[in-house]
TetR family transcriptional regulator (Agromyces kandeliae), 188 residues
Amino acid sequence: MPAPAKVSPDSLRAAARRVLERDGQQGLTMQAVATELGVRAPSLYKHLRDRDALVRLVAEDIAVEIGELMARVLADEADAADAVRAIAASARRYAREHPHGYGLIFGPLPEAARARGSAMERSSAAILEAARRLSGEARALESARTITAWMHGFTSMELAGAFRLGGSVDDAWSYGLDHLVHGLAAPA
């Protein structure tokens, strides 16, 4: 086995992300990450105090990653309604590509394992800006929460295979998002 000193913060993060996407949230353990790195689990305690710290590390990385993705999308859209649609679509794509990572951000976690303020602020900045553009300064927070709740609810149901009544899920997504955007738009 490699010496524990060879475990770097970057290699630890990368290994933890691989384990999460392969084995899910329950499989994200100190032992699984150590095995992925080719070291013994006790060597990870030089970097992290416990499993909650491991989960928090991964959750914060994912929150920042999603925030950066949404910021890039926002930068490409001048129209407020199009920005909201594009941000929602980017989150949906991310959830499909990284379902366990997405679930780690939006799912229930003990407080000690949840992403902290600065990471969550970075993950929320683009949706808050898009909501401000769409709904106005006075309703930006409420609008951002509504968009996020609808987007997450729809995406979570889709990932769980809960849409079983037939029809196109993509059409339902577009229909719902269009109506949501229209309803939240500030009067012209």
About this structure: The chain has a mean pLDDT of 93.
